[in-house]
Amino acid sequence: MRRINGFTLLELMVTVAVLAILAAIAFPSFQGTLRSNRMATTSNELIAALSLARSEAVKNTRGAGICASSAGTSCDGPTWSGGWMVWGDTNGNGAFDAGEPVLRFAEGRPALEGVSGQDLTIAFDARGRNRAAAAQDITLLPDECGNQDLQRRLTISPTGQVRLHKEKCA
After folding, report:
1. Are 64 and 54 contacting, i.e. CB atoms less than 8 angstroms apart?
2. Domain assignment of residue 31, yes or no
3. Domain enclosing residue 151, as ranges
4. Residue 68 covered by a domain
């Protein structure tokens, strides 16, 4: 008589039930990790876009900028959560005009909420300085914050430097 090694149906069902219970317990904390990673990725992409605009401004000696954009063809975005584009300012006026090159476009993030009352265009002059007289802020806010420091505020100083601040959601 040979003994057959393997799992019975009952053992398999118990194992699947235990895995389902563990997954149900771990899911809420995993959601917080996913939201945190999404915010870190989005803020890093926006910092990279700001750096690109600043370096392009110095390179082309006329300036460049970044603005909220929903399609990458104009500065028509209502908030930064709808997407953004970087352009080279060929005429040096600090605004996006027809015919100026779009260097990069990033699509909107559905998991972000727009924050109203913020500047939606940030322009840099030929020396890489912010054209605005004062510091400008960009706030990124997730649609579900929970009890974490998920809000990100990017401050662009008059010299063009970018600082990232992690904050409690407002």
Report:
1. yes
2. no
3. 39-167
4. yes
**Mean pLDDT, rounded, for 92-117:** 87
Give the number of other Cβ atoms within 10 Å of residue 142's Cβ: 21
pTM attached to this predicted model: 0.82
| Number of domains comprising the chain | 1
Domain assignment of residue 116, yes or no: yes
> What CATH number does the domain containing 48 carry?
3.55.40.10
| Residue 56 confidence class, pLDDT cut points 50, 70, 90 | very high
Residue 72 half-sphere exposure, CB side, CA atoms within 13 Å?
8
Asked, for residue 84, whether it belongs to a domain, the answer is yes
DSSP string, the chain: -PPPPS--HHHHHHHHHHHHHHHHHHHHHHHHHHHHHHHHHHHHHHHHHHHHHHHHHHHHSS-EEEEE-SSSSSS--SSGGGEEEEEE-TT-SSS--TTPPEEEEEE--TTEE--SSS-SEEEE-TTS-BSSSS-EEEEEEES--TTS--EEEEEE-TTS-EEEEEE---
- Write the pLDDT tens digit of every residue in 116-127: 778 899 999 999
